[in-house]
Design goal:
The chain is mainly alpha-helical. The protein is built from 3 helices and 2 strands, in the order αααββ. A two-stranded antiparallel ribbon has the order 1-2. The protein is flat, with a radius of gyration of 29 Å. It starts with a helix and ends in a 7-residue tail after the last strand.
Length: 92
């Protein structure tokens, strides 16, 4: 299996020297060979899982915990109009 390390590095936005590319070539080939070995395993009848533990995430109640503090927060603003901050025009 001939893997183009330079192309893979370019796609991953990794700069490699010639020596690094030569060192990574057999390592990348070995990794891909292992993946091919895994793909040969018979997984028929095995249910796919997203997590190794059979647990569910606890859900919290959808309750508002913060009160509306807009008036208090806008009290220090230099200018407010219809509940919005008014800022100086910067583009003419």
């Amino acid at each position: 299996m001939d893997i183009d390390v330079r192309k893979t590095a370019m796609l991953a936005r990794i700069a490699l020297t010639d020596a690094e590319a030569a060192e990574l070539q057999p390592q990348l080939s070995s990794i891909l060979g292992y993946i091919e070995t895994l793909s040969e395993v018979n997984t028929e009848g095995v249910e796919a899982t997203a997590h190794p533990h059979d647990t569910a995430m606890p859900l919290r109640a959808n309750v508002v915990t913060n009160s509306n503090r807009r008036d208090a927060l806008q009290a220090v603003a230099p200018k407010i109009e219809s509940g919005l901050y008014v800022v100086p025009k910067v583009i003419e």
